[in-house]
């Protein structure tokens, strides 16, 4: 069964600190992996997109990594800001003609002043 | 910047009633989706729609659900007889083309449906 699991479930850090969020997936055949940011009560917004051949992708203070062999991804946030407080969701697409995204369970990040 | 818009932002309905959730996708997009998120749970795929027909649907999307693109701009999700467990945030998304790096799906802000 196609699944996407994330850890930790929630995380609290101080402003200015770095953090790393983890994603493990069993989606097959794999097409691409996205990290989304979802503010409370809002729709998800894409941060990064990675394909099978990409190991690292950066978007400002966000850096995503992908290990297609172990089916793991991480999202590293550098120098966190209060506005980073949100849920971060790992989303995987399969390549077998499906149109859907498979969403992970999300990590709820809280950045404190 | 173009965006996916959903209305209403919040709808309260009595169990057994029909509801229609409305979405206006980005104008040049061809693929449309509905997802839902029950409070505290992950986002779940409901249905995808292309070329005026359903492309794929999940096991959640049973006979009480239907989708329609009644005109050139709106994309609707109808729930015929709502149940308490239908209470969730419903997200509409649209994409210009097939799933590759150049065709990102854009999500609307969601409609919070509360069934009482």
Structural overview:
The complex is a heterodimer of chains A (113) and B (116). Chain A has 113 residues and is mainly beta. Chain A contains no helices and 11 strands. In chain A, strands 2, 4, 5, 9, 10 and 11 form a 6-stranded mixed β-sheet that branches. In chain A, strands 1-3-8-7-6 form a 5-stranded antiparallel β-sheet, with no helix packed on it. Chain A starts with a strand and ends with a strand. The model of chain A has no long low-confidence stretch (mean pLDDT 92). By secondary structure, chain B is mostly beta strands. Chain B is built from no helices and 11 strands. Chain B has strands at residues 5-7, 10-13, 19-24, 31-37, 44-50, 53-57, 65-68, 75-79, 88-95, 106-107, 111-115. In chain B, the strands form 2 sheets. In chain B, strands 2, 4, 5, 6, 9, 10 and 11 form a 7-stranded mixed β-sheet that branches. Chain B is globular and about 35 Å long. The N and C termini of chain B lie far apart (36 Å). The model of chain B has no long low-confidence stretch (mean pLDDT 91). Chains A and B meet through strand 5 and strand 10 of A and strand 4, strand 5 and strand 9 of B.
Poorly predicted residue ranges of chain A = none
Largest binding interface between chains: A-B, 21 and 26 residues
Please indicate the percent range of residues of chain A in DSSP E strands (runs of 2 or more): over 45%
Portion of residues in helices of chain A? Answer: under 10%
Total number of beta strands of chain A: 11
The helix content of chain B, as a percent range, equals under 10%
Structural class of chain A: mainly beta
**Count of helix runs of chain B:** 0
Indicate the overall shape of chain B: globular
Radius of gyration of chain B: 13 Å
């Amino acid at each position: 069964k196609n699944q996407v699991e994330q850890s930790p479930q929630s995380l609290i850090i101080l402003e200015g600190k770095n953090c790393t969020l983890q994603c493990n997936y069993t989606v097959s055949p794999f097409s691409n992996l996205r990290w989304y940011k979802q503010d409370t009560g809002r729709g998800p917004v894409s941060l990064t997109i990675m394909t099978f051949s990409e190991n690292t992708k950066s978007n400002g203070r966000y850096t995503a990594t992908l290990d297609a062999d172990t089916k793991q991804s991480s999202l590293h946030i550098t120098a966190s800001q209060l506005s980073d407080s949100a849920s971060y969701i790992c989303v995987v697409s399969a390549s077998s003609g499906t149109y859907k995204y498979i969403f992970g369970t999300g990590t709820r990040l809280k950045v404190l002043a | 910047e173009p965006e996916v818009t959903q209305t209403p932002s919040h709808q309260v309905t009595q169990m057994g009633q029909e509801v229609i959730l409305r979405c206006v996708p980005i104008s040049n997009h061809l693929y449309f989706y509905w997802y839902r998120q029950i409070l505290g749970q992950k986002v779940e795929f409901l249905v995808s729609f292309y070329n005026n027909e359903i492309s794929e649907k999940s096991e959640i999307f049973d006979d009480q659900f239907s989708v329609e693109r009644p005109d050139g701009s709106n994309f609707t999700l109808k729930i015929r007889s709502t149940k308490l467990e239908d209470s969730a945030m419903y997200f509409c998304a649209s994409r210009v083309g097939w799933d590759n790096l150049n065709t990102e799906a854009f999500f609307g802000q969601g409609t919070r449906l509360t069934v009482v």
